[in-house]
Design goal:
about 625 residues; about 65% helix; seven-stranded antiparallel beta sheet; disordered N terminus
Length: about 625
Amino acid sequence: MEEHLIKSDWICSYLQEDDIFSKAKNAELARLLPYVAIKSFTTGQTIYTQGQHAQFLYMVITGEVKLFSEISSMTITSKGKIGLESCSELPRYVTCATVLTDATVLMIPRDKIDALKISREIKGDFILSLLENFTGNNVALENENNKKVDVTTDKKKSKDKNKVPLNKAIGWICVIIFSPLALWLSYKHGLDLNAIFFIGIFTATVLMWIFKLVDEFVPGLFAILAFLCIGVADTDVVLSGFISDGFFLAMSVLGLGTVIVISGLSYRVILILILKLPKTQSVLNLILTFTGIVLTPIIPTANGRIALLSPFLKDIIETCKLTPGKNAASRLAFSTFSGTTLLSGMFITSKSVNFVVLGMMPMQVQEEFQWLSWLVASIVTGVVLLVIVYVATYLMYRNKEAIQVSSDQIRVQLRLLGPLSLQEWSAIVGVLFFVLGILTYSLHKIQPPWIGLSILYGLLLFGCLKKDDFREKVDWPFLIYLASVVGIIQTMKSVGLDTLIAKHLSVLIPYMHYNFGVFVLILAGIMFVMRIAMPINAAIVLVAAVFMPLADVAGLNAWLVGFIILVLGEMWVFPYQCSYYMQFQDMTLTEKIYEEKSFLRLNMLVNVIKLVAIYAAVPYWKMRGIL
């Protein structure tokens, strides 16, 4: 039998004329179109048998197919459907399908039908068609059989669930042992009572993150709750994260990202890019990396950039028919992540903490290193970083997977999508308004979080973002995690632990004066250790608070010290250390888009590459008189 794709426009017309698929949205049919195939069967051939996994829906184009079981039999002709179990919860076919006269059928994979966001009405139509093909008793009997299987499977799963994984058992033991131990050690060192409680609670929180004992946002909630119950700090301090600028900015950008996705705008943009540009893996990786770099100075949060680009990544992998979890898809995932995060230290507007570090510099240095001069001073580090990471990503994920996409098919998909919908226009206006608002900040003085919140309000007000989508699509656990981390940092400051840590780190300052190369290594070591327990912004602010005031005394440019702290502060090894990676993980890894072990290994290499990029820029800094 020869299998081939029939002309895309013919398939498109066939689906649009079908009694069930005609009720689906054009955007959904456009996503389905690349996976619809045609297959021919000869007389007497079996299409599928009873009990076989229901992997395909078949739509009969020509010929006759006999559908039969022990208790029923019927003939399906042109325009009929068989294999409707693939559109239901039934895992296996409940009858046999044998060809009576030479037949041609359309085949649609079950997982692609599952991926469609079809309405209840369409689901109901599939079920009704299934019932028309079979007797109700037969379906019920099969369901009972399935229930028996499911019950057995459920018992097995339940038994497995009752087993506590070894790493979790070790983690909980560590929490039970080390939290009281931290309390006791803090007490022996004569710390303030609130500082003692903070250290005990914080130790338990970090251990829960390290061993992944619960979902990532739960330890943060535990810390907030414990601080409030014990009274470690004032309520407004502990809960400050929930009213912080970062919380509202992240919520607004996630809301805007939701509209971009559900409107189909991201899918349309990807189709246009793939149609216009060369269809190679290198070009796709450059598209994602370049887009992330362009967004870096515009959107002042890595979480926001991740939220906007992750949907594009998923759409590119789906459209190009790359296998999720394999090297090609993993390379695209790393290009997306690195493009949005790698140059955060090179643009002063890329993160709010950059402004905090700038504010710690002497006034003369602040005036010298504004937006463009900051970029020029950091350009060598950025270029070296990008080039080496690109090469490392290529070598890590070398593969020969072909991009399976047809230009004719993409044109049909774009035609099927039709003109821009109102929701897509709202997404475009929202993005443009947000970008213009940030770029013209010096004129209107409205902070980016309030610009974002205004856009979110507009989207909700005009119904472009529905209540159900706002509730289900926005990553609320991440927002809770983000707010709780900010609350933990503020609580730590309120009990005076930041000052205590700064005092102990200051003994290392003399190295700044004698050997810059060794100082960078020491700084990297300090940042690495602090980042094990502290979030990125907290570690950066704390280390900057220690080293920046002493930069003049040591004869170093304060900008140089601040810039290196910003670059090294982004180092991370474990996912819990990096909030924007956890967000990226939530948005992509649930669909197993990339292979995480290799991704994390490559990220560890990037930590080393950052050091190399800093050392590579030393001659440039000396030439410009910065060092």
